[in-house]
């Protein structure tokens, strides 16, 4: 079943291309009517996700690892399981994208906000829209 599109719908495939060009791993689904993107700006410490629906509503989540994961392996029911305990900080921002041409500026602001929230020293001049 395909959703009937309205005049205000955003081109999720165009948004997906913009995100990919900005260095995000992104995919769009006509079935869900969303583009989902993931970026790992700091290897092994941070993960950012961004989901935008065709109405332009978006949800950005930055996950910042506060301490190194503590792991162990256990044998349960014949399965070897690797279990980890992690301490993380989650930072979530919600909004609505009025125009797809605003995406690069939004990405720059989300980058600044996530870095500030995780305690990274940021100079606004260093972060620019892609």
Concise overview:
The chain is an alpha+beta fold.
Q: What can you see in these coordinates?
A:
Helices cover 19% and strands 44% of the residues. The chain is α+β, with helices and mostly antiparallel strands and 130 residues long. The protein has one domain (12-118). The protein has a 5-stranded antiparallel beta sheet. Strand 3 (46-53) and strand 4 form a beta hairpin. The radius of gyration is 18 Å and the shape is globular. The N and C termini lie far apart (36 Å). The model is unreliable at 124-130 (pLDDT under 50).
Question: Cα distance, first to last residue?
Answer: 36 Å
Mean pLDDT: 87
Element order: H for helix, E for strand: HEEEEEH
Low-confidence stretches: 124-130
Strand order of the largest sheet: 1-2-3-4-5
> How many domains in all?
1
By secondary-structure content and strand pairing, the structural class works out as alpha+beta
Number of distinct helices: 2
- What fraction strand? 35-45%
Spatial extent as radius of gyration: 18 Å
Helix % is 10-25%
Biggest sheet features: 5 strands, antiparallel
Envelope shape: globular
The count of strands amounts to 5
Keywords:
130 residues; alpha+beta; five-stranded antiparallel β-sheet; 44% strand; disordered C terminus
Any chance you could write out the topology, listing elements then pairs?
Blueprint: H1 12-21, E1 25-29, E2 34-39, E3 46-53, E4 57-76, E5 79-96, H2 103-117
Antiparallel strand pairs: 1-2, 2-3, 3-4, 4-5
